[in-house]
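In response to a reviewer's request, we include the raw inputs and outputs for one of the modeled complexes. The two entities were modeled together in a single run.
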Amino acid sequence: SQQGEEDPQALSIQEGENATMNCSYKTSINNLQWYRQNSGRGLVHLILIRSNEREKHSGRLRVTLDTSKKSSSLLITASRAADTASYFCATDEGTYKYIFGTGTRLKVLA
Amino acid sequence: KAGVTQTPRYLIKTRGQQVTLSCSPISGHRSVSWYQQTPGQGLQFLFEYFSETQRNKGNFPGRFSGRQFSNSRSEMNVSTLELGDSALYLCASSLAYTGTVEFGSGTRLTVV
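The model returned the following structure tokens for the whole complex.
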């Protein structure tokens, strides 16, 4: 079963704007990871946040985690056309597998 | 360092045939996982291996199998292919289960 649900399913913004994507999950986790996928190719790892962390930054990316609400958000600041892709969150179930969200399709217009 | 390498990149097979996909993890990574991605079902977990042992298996029929070798390289096999097996198959590796999981570029399998 799909644990992660992402919101919105699709997002279209202008270059330079910020993009926020949300991910919700159902069970307790050890960590949550965010990925980017371009046009059905492989997944590119963006950031890992552990259950005892509340926020992490990496370049233009900011990830938050709220374990009480079982949710996470990914913020991309000052977006670029090259950020156009699908974004997925993945949560571990503690049994050697990750469950992926349904993904958010981001389109950044130049 | 080299990333996760999957071969082949593209594959076309006929219904009823079998196929073997290969994955070489990042050097030093001992955990290897496989995922299937389709437009309808999204990313679905197939199985995970660590030190040649399968530690978990997803909800797929027995036609899907895998193995891991002593050098951590992994293969997955699909027998008696069905049209619905057409998908992007992704391999991932990590140092440990709770670490960063890196993915390969995938193998695009088309069953005709």
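As requested, we also summarize the result in words. Residues 81 and 99 of chain A are 28 Å apart (CA to CA). The mean pLDDT of chain A is 92.
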